[in-house]
Every structure is written in C-alpha cells, then in structure tokens.
Amino acid sequence: MKKSNVINAIYYQMKPLIPRWFQIWIRSKIALQRYRSYSNIWPIPKNASKPPDGWPGWPNYKQFALVLTHDVETALGQNKCNQLIDLEKQLGFRSSFNFVPERYEVSSKLREYLKHQGFEVGVHGLKHDGKLFKSQKIFLERADKINLFLKTWRATGFRSPAMHHNLNWLHHLNIVYDSSTFDTDPFQPQPDGVETIFPFSPDSEAFSKRYIELPTTLPQDFVLFILLKEKEIDTWKLKLDWICKNEGMALLNTHPDYMNFGSVKCGLEEYPVKYYVDFLNYVKINYGGQYWHALPKEVASFTNNINSK
Fold first, then answer.
1. Please, is 260 exposed, middle or buried when counting C-beta atoms within 10 Å of its C-beta (0-12, 13-18, 19+)?
2. E strand residue ranges, 81-166
3. Are 263 and 69 in contact (CB under 8 A)?
4. What is 248-294 written as a DSSP string?
5. What is the average per-residue pLDDT within 57-80?
6. Could you tell me which residues are beta bridge partners of residue 121?
7. Across all residues in the chain, what is the average pLDDT?
8. What are the structural domains, with CATH classification, of the chain?
9. Measured by CB atoms within 10 angstroms of the end CB, which terminus of the chain is less buried, N or C?
10. Under a CB-based contact definition with an 8 Å cutoff, are residues 186 and 34 in contact?
C-alpha cells in the first residue's frame, strides 16, 4: 500500500475523534506549507495544456468549456441548495449537484426540481467516510449500492468524496462519466494529478465498458477560502484565464455547505457566497460568447462522440 494511502486510512479511522476546528487548523497548516512547496505546478501545471490527439475543439467553435459542479456534503449543504439554484438561474448558469446517498436523507423533491430546471444530479460516493477505496473488496461491495442509486436517481455521473480515485475500479460503476480527479491539486489527500485540462477516457484492457473522466481544473472553494484563507478570487481568475488561453475545460467544484448567503457571520467553514457570484460575473463580463457552458453529462456525450469516430 502506498504511503499516502496508509496515512489516509489512519486519518479517516481517527477523524470521528478529532474536533472539527482542529481538523481545519492542521489541514490549513499543511496546505500553507504545500502552497509554498508546489508553486511550480499549482494552480497552473504548464504541462497540462496539450490537447488529446485528434481533438477537434469545442462545439460551435467556442474557445473553452465551462462546467459548474457542486458537492453537497451534508444535510446543511442540502438546505442551502435552493438559494444556490436561484442564484445561478438569475445569472444565467446551470450546474450539476452531487449528493451523498447514505450520509443524509437526499430529497427526491429537490432532485426532481433540479432536473426540471435544466440542472443535473450526480452521485457523490456512498457514505462520505473516506473508506470507499480502502480496499477493492469494500469498493465492490459499495459499488452495487452506488449503481442502485445511479439507477434510481437516473444519474450518469459520479464523484468520489475527498477526490479519492482508482480509475480502473471505477469501471465497475454504471456511469457515463466520473469527475474524481484533477489536473493538479497538491492539497488533496490523494494528490496525484492527471495533468490535463481536457476530458479523456481511462484505458482498461479488463473492461469493455468505458466512461469519460472529467478532471476538476479550477481550485476547489474549500482549499482557497477555508484552508488557504484567501479573501479574493484572484486564483480563480488566474487559472480561468490560462485555461481559456489553452482552449481547455474550466471545471469548477464548489460546495453549498461552505457558502454563507449573508444571513449571519461566516462560520469556521464558510466563505461569502459573493466570491462565487464574483467568479460567475467575471466569466460573463470577460468571456461572454467565448465559452461553451455545458453540464458534465453534455461534455461526456461530446467526448464519447469524438472517441467513436
């Protein structure tokens, strides 16, 4: 077992016993140290800009793709979803919301409302306990349940909690796409980046079934605003500008759990939702007409069509 996997296993075993404030404090210290050590590859990994062989460009000659996703970690996050949906609708955007099936009671009414409004619903792990990839036996046992939720929710996409991943094992899921990786992110528990800002199909000789991998290419909100304690969206702007220049996929993953919609002072794990609004407005003002705004399932379908030709 890799050293990082051993450390992760120990951490998630002890996590329920560690006060949340201390988890955030120690993770923030580690993140700040990594920020200084990995400035050569984060937030911009220059070797990730090469398009795949035969890449035809984005639909309608758009310069880059914009994909918005949200992981809903807790019941509290689920309670904030309607505010986030309304905000995106007002600004002319749509996104994918990924829910954890067995961590809290996922609202069927909310799922149907999202689909009715032109948004997307995905599955975010099973329990969010850090144990999904602890062993292949555990993964396969849980895969059966995950596939059941995918079918029941009529969902085609998956993202693992904490961005844990094993691209070969994921072939056991009945998915069109996965989004559990990133081009570069040294702040994650499993920090191996796929080093591309384009969608791709993971190879596997053992499986005839294929899926599309959609790496997260913009830094996550939790990293920027909770761990690194940034007070502006300059990092998002910097990375978006670079992705646009290289005609890649700008895929952002944020969490309603950590967004503060202004009713009370921000808590330990919150940031003003204004940061997200500022990002969306930056996209509209600076790149209007230049981007293909798509749901993850649409990008996966587009990539599958390319691969089948």
1. middle
2. 96-99, 120-124, 157-159
3. no
4. -EEEEEE-GGGEE-SSS---TT-EETHHHHHHHHHHHHHHTTTEEE-
5. 98
6. 97
7. 93
8. 64-308 (3.20.20.370)
9. C
10. yes
Closest CA to 252 of 287, 276, 220, 230: 220
Q: Which residue is it, tokens 């992705």?
A: 243
Torsion sign across C-alpha atoms 271, 276, 277, 278 = positive
Closest residue by Cα to residue 296 from 165, 180, 126: 180
pTM for this one? Answer: 0.93
Q: How far apart are CA 11 and CA 204, in angstroms?
A: 30
What is the rounded (10 degree) CA torsion for 188, 192, 196, 199?
-80
Secondary structure letter of residue 97 according to DSSP:
E
Work out the angle between the directed axes of helices 274-287 and 234-245 (0-180°, nearest 10): 30
Tens-place pLDDT, residues 186-215: 999 999 999 999 999 997 666 667 899 999
DSSP state of 122: E
What is the C-alpha to C-alpha distance for residues 289 and 292, in angstroms, rounded to an integer?
8
Distance of alpha carbon 85 from alpha carbon 297, whole angstroms: 18
Q: Encoding tokens for residue 192?
A: 């191996």
Q: Which residues pair with 157 in a beta bridge?
A: 177
